[in-house]
Design goal:
Largest sheet: 9 strands, mixed
Radius of gyration: 23 Å
Strand content: 15-25%
Structural class: alpha/beta
Length: about 475
Amino acid sequence: MSATDSIAVSARRGAPEETTADTRVVGLFEGDTLGGAAAALVASGEAKPALKKLALTHEDGRRLLIVGLGKREELDAERTRVAAAAAAARIKELGCSSLSWAAPDGEGIAGAIVEGTLLALYEFTQFKSDADEAGGSAVRELEIVADRDLDNEVAAARAAAVAQNGARDLQNLPANVATPDFLAARAKEIAAEHAAVEVEILGPDEIRALGMGAFAAVAQGSYVEPRLIVLRYEGGGSGGHLGFVGKAVTFDTGGISIKPSAKMQEMKFDMSGGAAVIESIGAIAGLGIEAKITAVVPSTENMPSGRSVKPGDIVTAMNGTTIEVNNTDAEGRLILADALCYAVDQGCERIVDLATLTGAIIVALGSTYAGLFSNDDEWYATVENACTSTGELGWRLPLHPEYFELTKGQYADLTNASDARKAMSSYAAEFLRQFVGETPWVHMDIAGTAWGLGRNYVGSGASGFGVRTLMELARTAG
């Protein structure tokens, strides 16, 4: 787990000045006046109210960091995460060991301080010979101070941030470490930690026995065995049976339709959807959220070899649909096809899948939004609300019968890649739609947001995108 897991987070009611932390953070809004040592910084203009602006002084033997929060009426959870991350970066430079934040009023603001701080303090140094020399946060305690009860909000935010950083750990691991079996072992750890979680791990023989010909076809080119990872969370709740499905291709060469070599090392991130699903279940169970969830994570490598699936091969998915594999680099939709069938077969009543599925989504939406596709307006609205409330933004893109026409195969029911290179993200989503039947479903294409997101609390590396959205869905829809 990430080192941020060891940071103690607490809430306290009372005067911010009464903290025992070595560093205190105070937000500055436009038009505000501050007293004490901070007043001189404000008067001189060194402390500015513009968002993320920082100024440092000392008061009563401890550091006092002033962070700009902009206009009071514009402060929301996302802007707070940004401000908290800016403060965290400065605190890390100073070598602070304990931090106290005076939380402004507002819904979700205290939790956002926790998230922004812990996400910004994250580092991945596992393979550095000298981790201390490579950097690292000295922060061991974070206190949130306000005149209201924040215990539950702060605890939930800490759980979300730790889980998101855990997903980032899985993403950042090299593919020779984070194999399908490694992800399965992490799922087993989560199940062992929580009585409400059960785990089932299916290997290649069981995958084939279930009729998962699409998944098996992708996996056959690798000498690393695939795993279908299933986590079942029984937390009660009255919202019905939710299904979380996450693509986990632990390395994607493209197979026989091999990718260009430039930046191919980033294809270790092609398991990001699965990482988010696995770690979200651990956080949901840890918080005891009332929900019933089946999480399905198909995990494999996509490798070229003498036994790889070939362009033109025809495979049969779990629901009997036949598929022409005309591009072996369109493998994510193949493994998801069988995983979605499995989720439906397990009785999931509403499904969301997360997948680094198409480069086209980056062209369309950049890294600002994940692409959202759905066959059900009501379920879509629930998922979109979860995305918006957590700052993991999603934008709806269309499904259409004309896109379905493109998915029809010449020699089989469907083809995984059309010669007509049109609406490629919608095409992929329409392909997936054929494997959920009438079950309400939302597909989240996170190829643009899983890494390189660029927000200052996650930087340009692995983002752990989707963890907080899934947790919010469990809370609101479970």
